[in-house]
Amino acid sequence: MSASTLSRFQGTLLGVLVGDCLGGPFEGSKYVSKAHLNKYFAKMLDPSVRLPFKTYTDDTAMTKSVALSLIQCRRVDPMDMAKRFVSEYNADPKRGYGATVGDVFQNLHLTAFEDPFGPASRQFGGMGSYGNGAAMRISPVPLFTHSTSDESDDLSTLLAAVETCSKVTHSNPLGIRGAILHAIAVRAALRHKAGEKMDTTAFTNGLIDIMAQVEGADSGKAHMTHSKLDKDPETSYVKKLEIVRSFLALNEPPHREEIEEVLGTAVSAHRSVPTALYCFLAAQKPIPEIETDNVFQRALMLSFHLGGDTDTIGSMAGALAGAQFGLDGIPSGLLKHCEATKQAVQWGEDLFNLAETSSSASSKGTQRSS
Ligand code: F2R
Ligand code: MG
Ligand code: MG
């Protein structure tokens, strides 16, 4: 695989980290004015200005666990991931974790990890969590399953890997499908031809096709009320993606209140994953009153402007822009304000080396396991 693919792997994970660190201070805000964001970014990019260092939150902490588990186990091992989540949480529980995911960690520990999916499946009276915690940490998985050869780039391998990784903490179909949507969007951003202008409608249509299959296939599972979820515009990812596509087609971008009302800025997966995708796609061209020519920065600024779950929406939008543009697309002046940038770049490199080894092994007939 090429040096540019290496840079895009690294950019994906650095994008997770930078979006999370820079968006963390705004999490829970009603909204953040564009004027404030223009000043915030100008200050950070001014080499003469010293600012307090920004630490990462649960989004990066859990992404780190997923990345290191894949790198060390060379497969998707839910037990290993569960142990890493718990040990990362115990080492630093004050990273702004979701309100109930701590119960899953505690129960995993109390049951000695005997069933890595058990505690999550009992959350919310057996409904499972539909928080965005599975989606926010999923970016290493499409890197792990990435292949340069179209024949061995098996989408079903990615979907199965995402489901396994998600179910350690999130068993609700909305939580899992949110992770699927973000993972296939990272995959598509990685595969977007470098240097070419993005056709955002075609990009969204590609995701709609896959999510229609996912929602259709899930509807057949007897124990869940999936078909109801798929028909409800609030909980169907296909319907949300159709809204994203219609927003992108407008001459004037929608006002933040409309984006917030229709797509959402909440901690639930269905009210944040499509929003992050919209921020990434809308950032492909200039946005009124957002003062930057850089797509990565613009995606983050729009994410923060919307308020609500800014660290997570910014982190997911950052992963997508990082996958599209690689390290060079991330303004270097932003990095010095964030914790652990070197580590994030290293996780990207390690996943690249793994994917490269697997691609050459699969071209010789041996396959990476999910
Ligand atoms: N927790 C936060 N932000 C809160 C403020 C943090 C503050 N800045 C600080 O510093 O302390 N952010 C993080 O949480 C989100 C990811 O959450 P995750 O991992 O999905 O957690 P959980 O607990 O599983 O779900 C989150 C909430 O969603 C609601 N919910 C989920 N499923 C539900 C269901 N079936 N029925 C009803 N409600 C459900 C609950 O309120 C959950 O607590 C990210 O934003 C991350 O940054
Ligand atoms: Mg967070
Ligand atoms: Mg958050």
Automatic annotation (TrEMBL):
<feature type="binding site">
    <location>
        <position position="58"/>
    </location>
    <ligand>
        <name>Mg(2+)</name>
    </ligand>
</feature>
<feature type="binding site">
    <location>
        <position position="311"/>
    </location>
    <ligand>
        <name>Mg(2+)</name>
    </ligand>
</feature>
<feature type="binding site">
    <location>
        <position position="57"/>
    </location>
    <ligand>
        <name>Mg(2+)</name>
    </ligand>
</feature>
<feature type="binding site">
    <location>
        <position position="59"/>
    </location>
    <ligand>
        <name>Mg(2+)</name>
    </ligand>
</feature>
<dbReference type="GO" id="GO:0140290">
    <property type="term" value="P:peptidyl-serine ADP-deribosylation"/>
</dbReference>
<dbReference type="GO" id="GO:0005759">
    <property type="term" value="C:mitochondrial matrix"/>
</dbReference>
<keyword id="KW-0496">Mitochondrion</keyword>
<feature type="signal peptide">
    <location>
        <begin position="1"/>
        <end position="23"/>
    </location>
</feature>
<dbReference type="GO" id="GO:0006281">
    <property type="term" value="P:DNA repair"/>
</dbReference>
<keyword id="KW-0479">Metal-binding</keyword>
<feature type="binding site">
    <location>
        <position position="312"/>
    </location>
    <ligand>
        <name>Mg(2+)</name>
    </ligand>
</feature>
<dbReference type="GO" id="GO:0004649">
    <property type="term" value="F:poly(ADP-ribose) glycohydrolase activity"/>
</dbReference>
<comment type="subunit">
    <text>Monomer.</text>
</comment>
<keyword id="KW-0732">Signal</keyword>
<dbReference type="InterPro" id="IPR036705">
    <property type="entry name" value="Ribosyl_crysJ1_sf"/>
</dbReference>
<keyword id="KW-0234">DNA repair</keyword>
<dbReference type="GO" id="GO:0005694">
    <property type="term" value="C:chromosome"/>
</dbReference>
<keyword id="KW-0963">Cytoplasm</keyword>
<comment type="similarity">
    <text>Belongs to the ADP-ribosylglycohydrolase family.</text>
</comment>
<keyword id="KW-0227">DNA damage</keyword>
<dbReference type="GO" id="GO:0046872">
    <property type="term" value="F:metal ion binding"/>
</dbReference>
<dbReference type="Pfam" id="PF03747">
    <property type="entry name" value="ADP_ribosyl_GH"/>
</dbReference>
<keyword id="KW-0158">Chromosome</keyword>
<keyword id="KW-0460">Magnesium</keyword>
<dbReference type="InterPro" id="IPR050792">
    <property type="entry name" value="ADP-ribosylglycohydrolase"/>
</dbReference>
<feature type="binding site">
    <location>
        <position position="309"/>
    </location>
    <ligand>
        <name>Mg(2+)</name>
    </ligand>
</feature>
<protein>
    <recommendedName>
        <fullName>ADP-ribosylhydrolase ARH3</fullName>
        <ecNumber>3.2.1.143</ecNumber>
    </recommendedName>
</protein>
<keyword id="KW-0378">Hydrolase</keyword>
<dbReference type="InterPro" id="IPR005502">
    <property type="entry name" value="Ribosyl_crysJ1"/>
</dbReference>
<dbReference type="GO" id="GO:0005634">
    <property type="term" value="C:nucleus"/>
</dbReference>
<keyword id="KW-0539">Nucleus</keyword>
